[in-house]
Design brief:
Layout (H helix, E strand, L loop, with lengths): L9 H4 L25 H9 L6 E6 H15 L4 E3 L1 H6 L2 H10 L4 E4 L2 H9 L6 E3 L6 H9 L3 E4 L2 H14 L3 E6 L14 H13 L3 E7 L11 H19 L6 E5 L1 H6 L7 E2 L26 E6 L2 E5 L4 E2 L5 E2 L4 E6 L16 E4 L5 E6 L7 E4 L11 E5 L9 H8 L3 H6 L7 E4 L13
Parallel strand pairs: 1-19, 2-3, 3-4, 4-5, 5-6, 6-7, 7-8, 8-9
Antiparallel strand pairs: 1-10, 10-18, 11-14, 12-13, 14-17, 15-16, 15-18, 16-17
Bound molecules: pyridoxal-5'-phosphate.
Pyridoxal-5'-phosphate binds next to helix 11.
Length: 439
C-alpha cells in the first residue's frame, strides 16, 4: 500500500459506507480512546527553544504505545516496518522504541537498512525483503543473522550459493505474489521454488521459517481482491507444505489489514504506518479513532515578516496576490525539505503556539522557502514558532492534511521529509537517544 501513487477511495469501493457517514465496518475497537494531550508538543511550543530553520521531533513514546496497542489488539507478534528511515522518523531510534513497545520483529525493504540496524547493535529478528539477486550483499546479511524475504527464483539461487559459500544457514521467509504483482514469487513458479528450498533445507543450507504476501487493496477492507489474495495465500502455504516445508510464520496484514481485518492476522502482523500513529484508512477512521498517536511534528520559525498592500503578487509567478493589505510570514522550508510544491495554495501551518491559529501557505512553495498569510492584524515577528504538521491535537495540520493538500498519501509526506531537516527524538523508557543532534 505504501508504494501506490494515489490513495484509493475506501469509502466508495468497499461499498459499505458513503463518505462522511460514521464508521460501522470491521474496525477493531481502540484499546483506549485517544484523549491524550501532547505535553511534549505543548512544552516545546511554550518554551521558545531554538529550532533552527526547522526540525522534526519524533515522540518515541507514541511509537512504543502504538506498537503495544497493536500487539494487544491483535494478540499476535508484531513485525514493525521501519524501512525508508522508519518512514522518515529515524531508523534506529524508532526501531528501539518499537521493540520497547513489544515488537517481536523489525521489517525493512533493503539489506542496507537491515545492516544499519545491526551496526547500531539492534539484535532483534529483522526481515529484509527487497533483494537484487546479487550474492555479495546476501552473504553480508547472512553473517548478521538477517532473515531474507525471497521473492524470485534468482533470489533463491543467490541465497543458496551464499549459504554454501559462507557456511551460514539462511533463515528465509518466502514472499509470494498473490495479486499485487510487484515483488513476490509468481504462483506459477512456486512449486519449483518450494522444491528447491526443500532440498536446500534438507542440505542444511536454508531454513524456511515464514511465508508472506502483500495486499493491493487493504485500505478498502471489503474490496473483493482482499479475500481473493487471502485465498491465494492459503493455497501458496499449501504448496510449500506439500514440498515438505514448514513455514511457521504466515503474515499478510499491513497496517490497514491489521486494523480492519482480524481474520487476516494469521501468525504475525506487519504494520508500518500505524506504528507511526497515522491512519492507513483515513476515509474510514482518524488515528484517534484507531487508538493511535501520531509521533511526528515538523517545527520551524518565521524567518521574515513583512507587510504587503492589496494586489501585491507573492512568490514565483505571482501565483497569489494579496486580496487585502496583509502581513506575510516566511517559512524557511520548501520542497527540498519535503513540503510538496503541489500543495501551493492548499496547505496550512500553525502559528501562535498553544491557542494559536492555522494560516494558509500562499503563492508557490519554493525549494527552500514558503510564504504564509498571517492576516492583516498579525502580531507575529521573526523567530516566532510555526508548527508545519503534527499530531493535530492543538489544531495544527496533520500529515494527512498535507497529503490531502498534495493529492497524495500521508506515507509520502512523512517519508519524504528532507534529509537536511535534523531529527530529534523525545521519549522515555528503554529508548536510547544517542542520535540526538547537538543543537
Ligand atoms: C511488504 C510490506 N509489508 C508491510 C508494509 C507496511 O505497510 P503499511 O505501512 O501500509 O502498514 C509494507 C509497506 O509498504 C510492505 O512493503
Amino acid at each position: 500500500m505504501a508504494d501506490v501513487t494515489a490513495r484509493t477511495d475506501a469509502a466508495d469501493l468497499d461499498g459499505t459506507r458513503p463518505p462522511g457517514t460514521p464508521v460501522t465496518g470491521t474496525l477493531l475497537p481502540a484499546a483506549s480512546p485517544h484523549a491524550h494531550v501532547d505535553a511534549h508538543l505543548q512544552a516545546d511550543l511554550g518554551a521558545g527553544t531554538d529550532v533552527g530553520t526547522g526540525h522534526v521531533v519524533v515522540d518515541l513514546d507514541a511509537v512504543a504505545t502504538n506498537v503495544s496497542s497493536l500487539a494487544r489488539r491483535t494478540g499476535v507478534p508484531v513485525l514493525a516496518v521501519v524501512k525508508a528511515d522508519a518512514y522518515g522518523h529515524g531508523l534506529v531510534p524508532v526501531a528501539r522504541a518499537a521493540l520497547a513497545g513489544g515488537a517481536s520483529w523489525l521489517g525493512v525493504a533493503q539489506l542496507d537498512e537491515a545492516l544499519r540496524l545491526r551496526e547500531a547493535g539492534v539484535d532483534a529478528p529483522v526481515l529484509a525483503w527487497l533483494l537484487s539477486g546479487d550474492a555479495a550483499p546476501v552473504a553480508a546479511a547472512l553473517r548478521r543473522q538477517i532473515t531474507l524475504g525471497v521473492s524470485h527464483p534468482r533470489h533463491v539461487e543467490a541465497v543458496v550459493a551464499a549459504a554454501r559459500a559462507s557456511g551460514q544457514v539462511a533463515d528465509l521467509h518466502v514472499k509470494v505474489d498473490t495479486g499485487l504483482h510487484r515483488n513476490g514469487v509468481d504462483l506459477a513458479d512456486l512449486p519449483a521454488v518450494a522444491r528447491t528450498l526443500a532440498e536446500a533445507e534438507r542440505d542444511g543450507l536454508v531454513a524456511v521459517s515464514g511465508v508472506f504476501s502483500h495486499l493491493a487493496w487493504a485500505d478498502s477492507p471489503r474490496h473483493p481482491t482482499v479475500d481473493l489474495q487471502a485465498a491465494a495465500f492459503d493455497g501458496a502455504v499449501d504448496v510449500l507444505r506439500e514440498a515438505g516445508l514448514r513455514p511457521g510464520l504466515r503474515h499478510l496484514a499491513n497496517s490497514a489489514a491489521t486494523l480492519t481485518r482480524p481474520d487476516l492476522h494469521l501468525d504475525m502482523v506487519r504494520p508500518g504506518l500505524a506504528v507511526y500513529g497515522l491512519s492507513p484508512v483515513p476515509d474510514l477512521a482518524t488515528p484517534a479513532e484507531l487508538g493511535l498517536r501520531p509521533a511526528l511534528t515538523l517545527r520551524s520559525r518565521l524567518a521574515h515578516v513583512r507587510r504587503v498592500a492589496a494586489g501585491e503578487g507573492v512568490s514565483y509567478g505571482h501565483a497569489w496576490s494579496a486580496p487585502t493589505d496583509t502581513v506575510l510570514g516566511l517559512l524557511p522550508l520548501g520542497y527540498a525539505d519535503g513540503l510538496p510544491r503541489s500543495t501551493t495554495g492548499r496547505a496550512e501551518v500553525w502559528v501562535g503556539g498553544t491557542g494559536g491559529r492555522r494560516v494558509p501557505v500562499v503563492g508557490r512553495v519554493c525549494m527552500d522557502q514558503a510564504v504564509v498569510d498571517l492576516g492583516p492584524g498579525a502580531r507575529e515577528d521573526v523567530g516566532d514558532e510555526v508548527v508545519v504538521l503534527g499530531p493535530g491535537l492543538l489544531g495544527e495540520p496533520t500529515a494527512e492534511d498535507w497529503a490531502v493538500a498534495a493529492g497524495t498519501i500521508s506515507y509520502e509526506i512523512v517519508a519524504r521529509l528532507g534529509s537536511r531537516l535534523p531529527r530529534r527524538w523525545s521519549g522515555s523508557g528503554d529508548v536510547v537517544l544517542e542520535e540526538e543532534p547537538a543543537w
